[in-house]
Amino acid sequence: MPAKLTRTAPRGGGPGALPRPRPQPVFIEPSGRRWRAVQVAGVLAMLALAGLLLVQLRPVADLVRAPLPGPDPHVLAQRLGRSPAVIGTGPMVRIVAVHGGELSDPFTGARLGRLSGADQVTVGSRPYAVQRYGDGSATRRIALTFDDGPDPLWTRRVLDVLARHHVRATFFVVGRAAAAHPDLLRRIVREGHALGNHSLSHRNLSDAPDWRARLELAGNARLLAHLTGRDVRIVRPPYDGGTGGAVADEELAIARAQRLGWPVASYDFDTHDWAYGGGTGDSAAVVGTLPSTIPLPALDGPDVTVLMHDAGGDRAHTVDYLDHTLIPAAQAAGYTFVTVPEADPGATGIPAAATPVDSATDSAVTALVMVWLVYPDQLSGWLFAAGVFTMATTGLGYALLALLRRWRRPPPTGGGEQQLTVTVLIAAYNEETVIEATLRSLVASTYPVREFLVVDDGSTDATPDIVTRLGQTLDHRIRLLRQNNARKPAALNRGLTHTGSEIVVTLDADTHAAADMVANLVRHFEVDPYGTLGAVAGVVRVGNRQVNVLTRWQALEYLGQIGVERAAHDLLGAVMTVPGACAAWRREAVLRAGGFSEETLAEDCDLTLALHRTGWRVTQDDAARADTEAPVDVDGLLRQRIRWTFGTLQAIAKHRDMVLRPRFGWLGMFALPWAALSIALPLVTIPFVTLVTLEALFRQGPALLGGFYLVFTAAQGLTALTAVGLLGEPLVLLSVVPLYRMVYDPLRSYLLYMSCYLAVRGVPVGWNKLARTGTVEAATPVGAGATHGAATPFATPGRAPAPHVPAPRAGDRTLDQANESAR
Predict the structure, then answer these.
(1) What percent of the chain is modeled with pLDDT above 90?
(2) Does residue 195 sit in helix, strand or coil?
(3) At residue 632, what are phi and psi to the nearest 5 degrees?
(4) CB-based contacts of 482, cutoff 8 Å, min separation 6
C-alpha cells in the first residue's frame, strides 16, 4: 500500500477530549424558576391586554347595547309571516303597521299615509305589510348603484368611467373593504357620488345574532363617518332580493335597519352582472337562465334604480357594460343620472349633503374593524406570498441546487491510494427484534470492515445474547461491549474508546445496510488527501414503507429531506446533520469536536455543527443506502418527532454563536439562520394562519383554500419528483404527494409548539424509544456504487472468514488516551 499522505489538521487546535462530568442538557432547568417567571409574565400580559380591550371596546359595546324603540324585530318578522303583503312601488322598502287604512312606522309610530284601494285588497286584515316607496314625481331619472366595494381594481375603473361620462352614482360599501382602501372611499365622496351602508363584513343580517346585526350596520355607519366625515345612513342589506326577491327571507334585516332609524334602499332592476365573468356565489346555477350579455332596463319613462357590483370577482364585463351600453343608452333615452338620496330626499329622509360626524365611538369601531377584518385579510395575503416564496426557495430552490450538485460534484468512482481501517459501531438498547437482521446485512459488506462493534446500553432483553451468538457463529468480527444504561451518546463514545480504526461508521440497531453502503461512505475519505473531511452522511430510507399510509408518507418525507434539502446544503458546504443512523466519521475529527454530546437529544446534529465549528468538512453520499424502521402509528411518530425537533432546537441554541458568522460560510450565513427562522416564524404566524383559514373557509367557502392547496401540492410534487429522480426511488412514492401537506403542516405546528413549551418549561425530555416491529425489508442498493473488489466468500454457510484486520498503528489514540492527555 502506498505511503499515507500527510494530512494538514484543520482549524480547531489539537485533539479534543470528552468531558468526564455529565453535562447539563440544553434548556433543562430543574429549579423551575424560568417557568414560573414565564407564567407570571403571561398572566400580567393577559391582564394588560384585557384592560386595553375593555377601554378600547367600551364605546363599541355601548353602540350595540343602546336601547331602541318599538317591538323586537324578530316578533315583527314573525307577525309578517312567510308571505307578507307587499304594497307600493319604488326602490326604497320599509315595514309598515296597518290600522284602519292608515300606515305608520311600527317602531316610532310616525304616520306614513293611507292605503290605496288596491293596496287595501292586498293587505286585507293583516296588521303589517312591506311597503315599497320612493318613486317621486319626476320621470326619466336613473340611479346607478354599486354593491360590495370598494375594490382597488374595479372600483377605480368604475369611477374612471363615471368621471369620463360626468355621471354620479351611489356606492353601497362594505366596511371591511372601505377600511382597507380609504383612498377610494374618499375619492367616491370627492367626485360627488353618494355612499350607502352595506354592512361591515357582508354578513347576512337575517341570520345574525341581534348584537352582530347592530354591529354590522351601526358599526359600518360609524366607520364611514370616521373615514369620510359624512353621516352615512341609507342602508342596503347584503343579499337583498330586490323587487322580485323573497321578501320573507330579508324582512328581519329590513326591520333591524328600520329600527335603527335608517332608510332601506333596494332597486328596480338587477343586472345580475355578478354572474358574468367569474363572480362568486351561485353564478354557475343561474348563468344558464340569463341572456348572453348583461341586459338593459326598460328605459321608457319611469325612474329606475339599477343594481351592479364593483367588487367580488371579475368585473370587466360590468365596466364594459357601464361604459359602452348602459350610460350611452340612458343618455340617448333622455335620462338624467342621480344618486339615491337625490332621487327623492323626502322619501329617504337623507339630505344630499350630510353633516360630518366624528366621535370616540367612530375611532373605536375603526380600530376594531382593522384588527378584526382588515389585518387578517392583509395577513392572509402576506402569508400566502410568504408561503409561496418559502416553497420556492426551500423547496424548488433546494431542488435546483440538488440537481446542480449532481451535475457539478459527482461522487468518487473508486477508492484512493489509501485503504483505511473501518469500524462499524452500533449502540443498542433492547433491540432483540431487529439486531440480528441488522448485523447480517452488515457482514455482507463489500468493504473489508475491521470490526462490527455493538455497545449494549444496559439492555434488559436478549440483545447481548444475540450479538454474542452471532459473533461466534456468523462472523467473528462482531464484537460486544456492555455497559449500564447511560443513553445513546455515552454508548457511542464508549465504542469510540474501544476502537483504533481511522473511520467509524455508525448505524442504528434497526437499520439494514446495503452491501456497498460502507464502501460508498468510506471512498470520500480515501480521496481526501489533506484529511480535512470530518464526516460523510448516508441516505436513510424508510424500510417499512409498505405498512400503511403513514409509513409511505414518511418515506417521501425522508427523500425530500435527504435527497433535496441535505443535497442542496452539501453543495453549499452547509450540511447541518449527519444522521447517526447511516454515517461515517473520521475518528480524529470526533475527538477534536468532543465526541457525541449528551447536551442535546440530537447528538448527530450537535456533533455535525461541532465539526463545522472546528473546521472539518462534511459531505453526503447519495449511493450509501440504509433502510430504517419508521413509526407505524401516530403516537410513535409524535414521540419520535418530539425528540428530533426538541433536539434540533437544542443544537441550534447551543451553537447559536455560529449564526450569521461569515467564518462558517453558507452554514453560518444561510442554513442556520434559515433553520432558526423556520422555527421562530411559524410560532408567531401559525395562530394567525389558523384564524385566517377558518375565516376564509366561513366567508368564502372551500374554493379559496382549495386553490392554495393545489399551489402548494404542485410545488411539493416538483420537489418530491426531484428527490425521487436523484435517489432512484420508485415513482409510486409520488402517490402520497396529495396527502403531504395535510400531514406535514399540522404535525410541524404541534412539534414546534410542544418543543418550545418543553424548552421554556425546562423539564427533562426522555428518549421515547420506539417499539421495534422488525418490518424493515432488506436493503437494496440503487444504481452502481463503488466497491472494493469481490466480497470474501464464506467458508461455511452463514459464517464469514475474518478478513485481514490491520493492527493499530503507532499514531492511533483511543478516547481514554485523549482524555488522559487533556487532563
Answers:
(1) 56
(2) strand
(3) -105, 0
(4) 455, 456, 458, 464
How far is residue 677's CA from residue 397's CA, in Å, rounded to a whole number? 17
Q: What is the pLDDT of residue 513?
A: 96
pLDDT in tens, 139-180: 899 999 999 999 999 999 999 999 999 999 999 999 999 999
Pairing between β-strand 582-586 and β-strand 503-507 as defined by DSSP bridges:
antiparallel
Q: What was the pLDDT predicted at 243?
A: 54
Q: State whether residue 626 is helix, strand or coil.
A: strand
The residues pairing with 184 across neighbouring beta strands, listed in sequence order, are none
Q: Is the peptide bond before 376 cis (omega within 30 degrees of 0)?
A: no
For cell 358599526, the residue is: 219
- The answer to whether residues 366 and 219 touch, using CB atoms and an 8 Å cutoff, is no
234-261 burial, b at 16+ Cβ within 10 Å, e below that, comes to bbbbbbbebbeeebbebbbbbbbbbbbe
- Of the candidates 760, 753, 801, the one whose C-alpha atom is nearest the C-alpha of residue 641 is 753
Residues in the chain: 823
Task: Count CA within 13 A, CB hemisphere, residue 1.
Answer: 11
Nearest by Cα to 470 from 491, 453, 488: 453
Is residue 819's pLDDT more than 80?
no
Contact 37, 215 (CB under 8 A): no
- Number of alpha carbons in the 13 Å side-chain half-sphere of residue 347: 21
Which letter does DSSP use for residue 141 in this model? E
Contact between 92 and 394 under an 8 Å Cβ cutoff? The reply is no
**Torsion region of 782: left, alpha or beta (phi above 0 gives left; psi -120 to 50 gives alpha):** beta
Distance CA 101, CA 375 (A): 52
**To which H or E segment does residue 425 belong?**
strand 422-428
Q: Given this model, what pLDDT does residue 429 score?
A: 95
**Under 8 Å between Cβ of 807 and 677:** no
Q: What is the mean pLDDT of the chain?
A: 84
Grid cell at residue 213: 346585526
Among 47-61, 427-441, 587-601, 631-645, the minimum mean pLDDT is found in 47-61
Give the phi and the psi of residue 538 in degrees, each rounded to 5. Answer: -100, -175
**CA atoms within a 13 Å half-sphere pointing along the CA-CB vector of 225:** 22
Strands, E assignment, 267-405: 269-270, 304-309, 336-338
617-628 and 533-542: which strand pairing?
parallel
Compute CA distances 577 → 234, 498, 603, whole Å: 65, 25, 9
